[in-house]
Request: fold
Amino acid sequence: MHGCGGDGLAGGPADSGAPDARELSFDAWVEVRVPALLRFAYLVTGSQHAAEDAVQTALTRACERWPRVRRTTNPDAYVRRMVVNAHVSGWRRAGRRELSVADVRDTATPADTAEGLATADAVWRVCAGLPRQQRAAVVLRFYEDLDDAEIATILGCAQVTVRSHVHRALAALRAELDRQEQTDD
Reply:
């Protein structure tokens, strides 16, 4: 396990069938949430290595504070915010703002078409060029399917700022993809 203590449900049986994050021990919660946290972190950081580092740092801090974290209204959002903070702290310490990635890990299923993969790859490469906050807002909106209020909580900004980040990011993505299409023709 993950060694933060506890062995399953902390608060007894769940009324609704699926246990709420607030009812789970840290170890049980991690077992359920770590794949989604790694996907989220990869989309935010653009690197599998940086994603793993950010998730590990966030989970270490969450483990230390689990009684408080699980009492929040949304422990998942709280830990996602910890992942974003861990990533930001990492690049601040390293003195860099962007990390170029040579290859984007392809997690597509065999049923996807080559054209769809090429488009997804092109979109991701353009996303990687967005400013950090815009990229995080786009990832949270379109990959994590969160609303403005949840994104604002995670990013620590106002909802109107979230809408601005998404709007500007989408405008930049459209402009860059249009530019690329024109140069390909």
Q: What stands out?
A: Helices lie at 26-45, 48-64, 66-70, 75-94, 114-128, 132-143, 148-155, 159-184. The first helix runs from residue 26 to 45. The radius of gyration is 18 Å.
